[in-house]
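lol forgot to send this yesterday, sorry. struct tokens for the thing we talked abt
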């Protein structure tokens, strides 16, 4: 049997991809034709258009696994001819692609595959990215965007695939989407119309989201995916290239405070756990430097102190149910803090005299003494860790760096009257 390669012909309103398989016996002669109709005249041929879209997405995906050094490969020619029309079919908000409610999951997977393949084929063609970043686009486009970026970041990369850092300049838009999504979830600000079509999601194992038939991804699902994306690659929302120092610090503080608010988000333990992991990643010493490269130490003291203050306040007020997990996590945050200060021991105290630093340390001491009397062993371990932090690695420092600003009166050094006043304060 002999084969003839795919051929591409174009008519007035259609693009025809034909692969001819020739067999010596005429009765086995087969033709596979895929028609992708372009423009306003395709409404009468919707089934053919949908079939063509599916086939072309698979073709584009297959092409990404061919080394781009093989520039004469016929598949590349075909893909370059259909990629723009394909994106127009799948990423037009006023006319979304749909094969009906029963195929919602498959359609979303198709859009994700198209986005990922399009990024790998034409990484600088960002039309689909613009559509998905638009806050006025339907929720499904936000879901597709975040799912696609997560797949690009986490999937094992072939040498010729472009790096995700091409998307870093869009960090401000991604942060805006994250903050707006977070505000909608925390305030319950979901339109009455959306509530009619959004139902509770069915979660499968981690990193795999599936919905019941006739459901669309909820705003909570999108928020969960965003937090996972931050954990997978913080720079997608941490990048602030070209901004001034105070603007960078403000953006970082907004992002991290948003994640902190999710740690004690009621009735969303999956989001809370992901937020804790994302914050722990952001507290790795190499990531802390990116909070504000122009003033890393000053920014660290300000931002980290606000994190510790907020979490400690919730623990003191018993507003966090899973306090054992929070204490374990808080201990890891303090370990990262000590490591960062150890790495910058020569100027570790720069910026540590802010009022929030003192307030955060006092709150932490109150937490440690509260949970010293807990029947939970984790509370006692946290107390001893906070009171006697682990020493630095040999050769680093003769003494561990301070976990609090120097020259600050510790809670334990205050007289009994002051201690009682702090503990009995309604906002303590």
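and heres what i got for the seq, position by position
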């Amino acid at each position: 049997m002999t084969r003839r390669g795919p051929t591409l012909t174009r008519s007035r309103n259609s693009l025809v991809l034909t692969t001819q398989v020739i067999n010596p016996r005429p009765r086995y002669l087969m033709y596979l034709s895929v028609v992708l109709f372009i423009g306003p005249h395709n409404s009468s041929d919707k089934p053919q258009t949908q079939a063509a879209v599916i086939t072309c997405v698979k073709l584009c995906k297959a092409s990404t696994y061919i080394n781009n050094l093989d520039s004469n490969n016929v598949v590349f020619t075909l893909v370059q001819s259909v990629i723009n029309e394909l994106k127009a079919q799948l990423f037009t908000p006023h006319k979304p692609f749909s094969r009906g409610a029963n195929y919602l999951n498959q359609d979303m997977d198709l859009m994700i595959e198209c986005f990922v393949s399009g990024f790998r084929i034409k990484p600088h063609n960002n039309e689909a990215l613009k559509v998905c970043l638009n806050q006025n686009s339907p929720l499904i486009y936000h879901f597709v965007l975040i799912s696609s970026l997560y797949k690009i970041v986490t999937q094992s990369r072939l040498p010729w695939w472009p790096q995700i850092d091409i998307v870093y300049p869009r960090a401000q838009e991604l942060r805006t989407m994250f903050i707006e999504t977070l505000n909608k979830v925390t305030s319950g600000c979901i339109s009455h119309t959306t509530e009619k079509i959004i139902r509770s999601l069915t979660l499968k194992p981690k990193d795999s989201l599936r919905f019941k038939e006739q459901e669309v991804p909820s705003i909570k699902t999108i928020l969960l995916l965003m937090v996972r994306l931050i954990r997978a690659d913080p720079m997608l929302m941490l990048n602030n290239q070209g901004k001034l120092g105070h603007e960078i610090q403000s953006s970082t503080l907004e992002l991290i405070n948003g994640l902190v608010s999710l740690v004690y988000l009621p009735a969303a333990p999956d989001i809370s756990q992901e937020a804790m992991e994302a914050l722990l990643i952001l507290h790795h010493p190499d990531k802390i430097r990116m909070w504000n490269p122009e003033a890393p130490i000053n920014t660290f003291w300000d931002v980290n102190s606000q994190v510790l203050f907020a979490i400690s306040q919730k623990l003191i007020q018993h507003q966090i149910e899973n306090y054992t997990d929070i204490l374990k996590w808080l201990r890891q945050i303090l370990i990262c803090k000590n490591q960062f200060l150890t790495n910058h021991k020569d100027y570790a105290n720069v910026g540590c005299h802010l009022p929030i630093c003192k307030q955060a340390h006092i709150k932490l001491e109150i937490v440690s003494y509260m949970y010293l009397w807990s029947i939970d062993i984790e509370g006692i371990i946290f107390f001893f860790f906070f009171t006697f932090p682990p020493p630095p690695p040999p050769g680093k420092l003769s003494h561990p760096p301070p976990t609090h600003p120097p020259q600050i009166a510790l809670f334990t050094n205050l007289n009994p009257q002051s201690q009682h006043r702090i503990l009995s304060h309604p906002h303590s």
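Confidence is low (pLDDT under 50) at residues 1-5, 11-41, 189-208, 395-415. anyway ping me if u want another try
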